[in-house]
Amino acid sequence: MTVIPDILAQLARLDACANVPRVKALHLPPPHAVAASRIAGRGEFCALELTDGTLGLAYVLLDDHSDALREGQGLDGLVGASALDIARGLLEPQGVNRVLGWAAVNAMTRWLYDRAGYVPPESRDSFGQLPIVPGERIGMVGFFTPLIDRVLAAGARLTVVELRTDLQDARPGLRLTNDPAELEGCTKVLCTSTVLINDTLDATLAHCRDARWFAMVGPSAGCLPDALFARGVTMVGGTWVTDPAACLSALMHGEALKGGTRKFAIERVGWPGFDALLALL
Prior knowledge:
Elements lengths: L3 H14 L5 E5 L3 H9 L5 E6 L4 E5 L5 H6 L12 H5 L8 H21 L20 E5 L3 H9 L3 E5 L12 E4 L10 E5 L1 H4 L3 H5 L7 E5 L8 H5 L4 E7 L2 H9 L8 E7 L6 H5 L3
Parallel strand pairs: 4-5, 4-7, 5-6, 7-8, 8-9
Antiparallel strand pairs: 1-2, 2-3, 9-10
C-alpha cells in the first residue's frame, strides 16, 4: 500500500463536507520560458488553479510529462472538473495524470489550510533545515547541488541516490549511486518530493530504517503530511504561495518562483493533524 490512497481518502472527506472550488486552469510555462529555466538549471513546474484563485504546484520535468502536457495530453475536461476527480489521477500507474493529480492534491490542501487558518512555519533554508554533524552518514535522494558542498565541508559522509547517470563526482566522502539500498545506515536523509510523483516513497523509506531524521522537500510536497509522518517522514518542506500573480508571472517567464513564494517546514512534532483542521471548517 502506497501513501496515495491515504491522502485521497482524506481529500474525499474534505470534498464531502466542504464546497471545494473546481478547476479553473492549468498554467504551464511556454517553450521560451522552459528553455530559460533549463539553461539556468532550475526545475520545471506547473500550477493548477482553482476557481477561487488557489494554486497547487507540481514538478513536471520527469520523463516526457512537460512536453506531453504542453501538447494537450490529459487536459480534456480539466477546466471545470472536480479537483478531487483530478487528484484521483494519482491512482494511474504512470503518465501526465499523476502530475495533474499532485497539483490538484496540493491545491486542495492549500484551500483547506486557508479556510482553517493554518499557516505552516517558514523554513530557515531550502534543504529541510538539515542539521549536520561531522562524521555522520547522511543520505540524499536527488542531487541537491548547493547542499553537497555544505555537507562535505562539515565533515559528514554523503550518499546520493540519483537516477541520472550523467552526473559524476569523485570527491572524498561522497558516494553517487542509483541504488536506494545504499541509504541503509544513514542517520539522516534529505529526499526530493519527486518520489511522490513517481511513487517511490515507500520503496525509499524501506531502506531508511536507521534514519532518525527524514525530510522531504520540494514544491510537490504541498500535500497533507499525515500519511507521510505515519510512514517515518519527520519533516515536510514545500513552497507556500504568498503572491499568486507574482508566482504565475515567474512560472510563465521561466524565472525562479522566489518573488511570489516562500519555503515552509512542517515538522511531525507540532503538526495539528488533518482531523483538527477539518473540524475548523
